[in-house]
Structure formats: structure tokens, C-alpha cells
Amino acid sequence: MHIKTATFVVSNQEVSKCPENNLPEYAFIGRSNVGKSSLINMLTNQKKLAKTSGRPGKTQLINHFLINEHWYLVDLPGYGYARVSKSSKKTFQKFITAYFRERKQLVSAFVLVDIRHEPQQIDLNFMQWLGEHGIPFSIIFTKSDKLKPKAIERNVGHYQSVLEQSWAELPKHFVTSSSNFTGKDELLNYIDSINSSLKNIKPQFD
Ligand code: GTP
Ligand code: MG
Question: Which of 40, 70, 81, 119 is surrounded by the most beta carbons within 10 Å?
């Protein structure tokens, strides 16, 4: 799939104020600084569509981007950023949780994890929570440009062996880099295949 148009629609903290039409959407979630906003820019071929920063805590709202006038990419604030105040952490948690519980248009979440790191408990817990709430998700390994192919293979294998301890079936995964466009086609084709299957069963997504 090729992205022809990508436009920012709305930012807010309230699920009730997210776009009301019934288009399918895909949300990027993960720890602060893992590369959620950068990946949206990479997929859409835009440098500044989603705001990025070298410092964690940049994205603070639910951001909807309309793609090809037919579906949304959703950029969310990161979790696990130690330097945010306790009260804003709670607010984040509240509206992110509300988003995942209430947003009917959410077709799939993508949980982003930095490919360089050991599996982090906070990510594993979040995946567990998604599973318990019946929310489909895939894993996106980010920043693969920082590792050599052998190390990528090793780290992905290690991550999967940790997941195997709690998941009967492993979630789908993608290896990406926003710096060198790794994984772009795979990710867009995957979304495209879901969108096509939705069209067949859910006419309201037309
Ligand atoms: P928050 O909005 O704070 O939760 O962060 P985020 O997950 O949206 O991360 P963001 O896209 O802002 O990127 C964080 C930092 O990582 C920036 O300095 C990016 O340039 C860098 N970064 C993101 N993706 C990649 C990548 O694929 N490769 C490399 N080398 N750096 C990346
Ligand atoms: Mg961000």
C-alpha cells in the first residue's frame, strides 16, 4: 500500500472527542522515546506530521492522523516516563486506558519496543492487559538501525522466548527503523490486508 495523503485531524485527552466517523484505526503505544511518532512520520513520508523529540514525554495527547481518507493512525503518549509528575502520569494512564477500553474503531494496537533492550516488565504487563481486554495487538521492534542483523535476530528470538512463557500463541511482530525505512512495506501491507478484510465484513468501514 502507498500512503497518498496523511493529515492531522485532532488532538485531545478525551475519547469522547475523538473523530466520530466509523473509520478503522491503528494505535501506536509504548514507552516514551521508543519511536512512536517517528514511525508515523516514516510510514507517511512526512518529517513533521507527528511531533518527535530526543527527550521523552513529547507526545502528550491522543493524536488522530487520517490516512488516504480511509483510516487513521493514532499517536499516543508514552508510558513509563519517570520524570513526568505523579499527577500527570495518572492523567495519562487514565485517558490511555479509556482510549483502549472504549474506542470501538480501534482495529489493532501496535506495541512498540526498542529492539536494543531486554524485555521490560512494563511492556509485558501492558501486552497482558491488552490480551485480558481482548484488544488485538502486534509488536513493533524499533530502532533496528542501531544493531547488526545477527543481534537483531538474537534479540527478537530472546523477546519471543520471554513471551512464550505467558502466551500460547505469539503476537505478530515487525522489525522497523524510522531512520532507514526498514519494515515500512511490511507494516503498511499488513494494515492494508486488515482494512480489506474489514471492508468485506463491515460495510460501515467503507
Ligand atoms: P514520546 O512521544 O515521548 O512518547 O516518544 P516517541 O515514542 O513518540 O518517540 P519519538 O518518535 O519522539 O522518538 C524519540 C527519539 O528516538 C528521537 O530522538 C528519534 O529521532 C529517535 N528515533 C526514533 N525512531 C528511531 C529509529 O528508528 N532509529 C533511530 N536511530 N532513532 C530513532
Ligand atoms: Mg511521541
Answer: 40
